[in-house]
Design goal:
Elements: E1 18-21, E2 28-30, E3 45-48, E4 52-61, H1 67-70, E5 75-82, E6 87-92, E7 101-109, E8 112-119
Parallel strand pairs: 6-8
Antiparallel strand pairs: 1-2, 1-3, 4-5, 4-7, 5-6, 7-8
Amino acid sequence: MSEVTELRGWTDGAGAILYQSCGACRHLWYFRRAFCPSCGDASPQTRKANGNGVVYAVTLVRRAATLEAKVHVPYAILLVDMAEGFRMMAHGDSDLRIDDNVIAEFRPFAGLRTPYFVKA
């Protein structure tokens, strides 16, 4: 009998970025769901990303939305196209530009350890 180990990602306190894929339609997405958002298949596969990506967009936040985030101002929010084929939003170095190759680290932000991208 084999035991299935559930993958843990940064939202569970682990240093990993998890994404899901659909065996029925091959769609990829970030943030776990019980079904495929493209075709509705109820058996998505959870996978661990390698942390590599390319910056798609960058925004510099100068006004924090919460008191917890205020100590981090200014901070960069990125959209990153991950090597596996999905796009995610995360924090990163403020000198990053569109098309920069990046790799994920995990750093504290507003009480959580979150993905943080630096130049690869």
